[in-house]
Amino acid sequence: MYDIRPVGYVIGLLVAMLGLAMLLPLGFDLFARNGHWPVFLQASVVTTLTGGLVALACLNGVGQGLSIRQTFLLTTGVWVALPIFGAIPFVFGATDASYTDAFFEAMSGLTTTGSTVFSNLEGLPVGLRLWRGLMQWIGGIGIIVVAMVFLPELRVGGMQIFRTEGFDTFGKILPRAGEIASRISVIYLGLTVACALTYLSVGMGPFDAMVHAMTTIATGGFANYDSSFGGFGAGAEYAAVVFMVLAALPFVRYVQMIAGGWSAPLQDRQVRGFLMTLAVLALVMLLWQIWQHDRIWEHALRRSLFNVTSILTGTGYASEDYMGWGAFPVTLFYFVGLIGGCAGSTACSVKVFRYQLLFGAILSQVKSLHSPRGIFPLRYDGRPVGNDVVNSVMSFFVLFTVTLGGLSVALAMTGLDFITAVSGASAALANIGPGLGDIIGPAGNFSSLNPTAKWLLSAGMLIGRLELLAVYALLTINFWRG
Question: In the prediction, which pLDDT does 218 show?
């Protein structure tokens, strides 16, 4: 049996930091004089003390780094522990939520999914609205570090192809993670500030600009209003499109740009593929709306671009209820959500690079059928792709499909209708946010679902956010025997 104290130490520290983060919404509630600040004081004390005690108890087991097995456990453990404590303000607070609902909301926030069980969001105290946005912002920067440091080392879902993208972390994960996180934090904070200032310039109030900037850069989608982005003007929608796209690009490219490589993003095949996919899908939706609904072209362009970008990046904002656009757009949105943004970004879902590798592998196989004696090596961005990467990507697609089907069936067994079960499973596993239909569509929320369905969806959010294999590895006997 291996030592789990290093894992407990890191998780304890992160839980304690989450508790300290609760002081920010506490301050906003104090300033607003709404009498809600004791909720965050109690939650902060409980969370900080618990995390601190766990860290102290595990301090004597801290070494120079983490083994691969410890890293698997840490990666999943963090995303289980943080929602457990992040849910406390919702239980104690004005929502008077059950722990099931509170955990669902916290998991949705920290995984940047964006599904919600709360209605009348504009009526919540400012502290709770800020806490929802802050959780997504914390989860967004956390998932970038995981995607750039941990998952490539764990050879999860083909992520090992990015091990040479500027950082050598093997054998010294924690020290290098700190260095990488410090660089990313500056970029992440800079994008958030720029987004907030842009929202201010197009008419958003200061509080709305701050919270929506957090959830935009995190591609999380939590909004301060039940109507999501429906109450904001055209300027806010165009601004959101720009920053959702920026947040869905690999953050390592921003690091390279700062170092002088200004052309780094456009030289990335993944970035080019993502931008091309976005442009084609937005154009298709624009033409459909003009043809079917005879809309003014600017209005059709804005609605198409905004909602396609939101679903493609997994942000989950909605400017209107697109369930009324017709069967074709709804079907298209379902599959768009299963594409996702770029690896190493805050975007979610399958990711563009996996589709590129999948199609490349299929093309190589087709060529080999036509020319059995030929050699057609698979290359990505000019570099050869090993069989381990291809096998990992194929395993990811198989597991994703099987998990999506299994989760859909499990949700249907709880009593949900077909559309709600299938779209809910996709929304959770791909971390999109809204589902389809009248219940969990863009005009609804997840509050009316039964508790079992909410726990299943919470598990789906966790599994999808950590790229499936990082979680499934913990369920094998060999992992614990090793």
Answer: 96
